[in-house]
Amino acid sequence: MTELKNDRFLKALMRQPVDRTPVWMMRQAGRYLPEYRASRAQAGSFMDLCKNADFACEVTLQPLERYPLDAAILFSDILTIPDAMGLGLYFETGEGPKFKKTVTTSADVDQLPVPDAERDLDYVMNAVSTIRRELNGRVPLIGFSGSPWTLATYMVEGGSSKEFRHIKGMLYREPEVLHALLSKLAEAVTDYLNAQIRAGAQAVQIFDSWGGALGHRAYREFSLAYMDKIVKGLIREHEGRSVPVILFTKGGGQWLEIMADTGADALGLDWTTSLTDARTRVGDRVALQGNMDPCVLYGSAKAIREEVAAILAEYGQGTGHVFNLGHGIQQWVDPDHVTAFMDALQELSPAYHES
Predict the structure, then answer these.
(1) Mean pLDDT confidence for 291-311
(2) 77 given a catalytic annotation
(3) How many angstroms separate the Cα of 80 from the Cα of each of 104, 189, 335?
(4) What is the pTM of this model?
(5) 250 HSE (CA, 13 A, CB side)
């Protein structure tokens, strides 16, 4: 087992002392980087990039060559599980992910297989083990999955949605059908994340991208209950150290207390929730990750520095904060603006960790 040279990220997730606030960015390997665009063009397509372990490793490591990041995140897609269930994932230029088949009836749910992650998603595990080997202890590797509710929205809608007409229709018309689908997905996600941990992931994040679209009662029943089930089924120690679990519900700042009840180690925040408020509400039960608006990176270096300073001040002194964007970095961001972000954080955050 290679010794981890930089474990600042893992320590912060476990609320242990660190010398500065660790940082990574959602979608840190992506279209804002010219080297990523070159790799994708060479690979042929997005899914070809995901399914080739060498390419997936290459793009995972690219942002680490530019920026002083404290973690790498597996390059993959949240929709690999539905694809392995036979729905036929594909990407339309400019329109995002789509499925050739959708899930609309009880019979459709009954026919869905629960994939075996190590067999049916072996290309993901190959990518994890390849990245972990190439990192050689440089920083920890984050594995991830979409939440059952988020995966279900794509499977029922057939792609992205603004209205959630079909899945919310199922929720209120045939809740038992949706529960059956979510149960299968929770089983699949648990297996998938555990397989990533066995392959080398040192922390995992559950992306509940569409949880914030639910009403307050529906969120508990149709999203949080299944994430709770997953958290309780995960491997929490591997290779002699804890494997932290991060829950991120976009638009979920009103549910932090009940999210912390799952036993997750950290909660991700988008930019609509104050870190001061969040820290007051959850105390030392969980670490907090976030929460800069990605659009700040369209601003000047001065504006970026001011926002970094304000977010650090919002969290305040002590450990338990992982700096991140409140959602994925956008493709039009100038990479030099990320440098300004990293420089500001490197300079300003140590003062918040002085004993």
Answers:
(1) 98
(2) yes
(3) 19, 10, 28
(4) 0.97
(5) 16
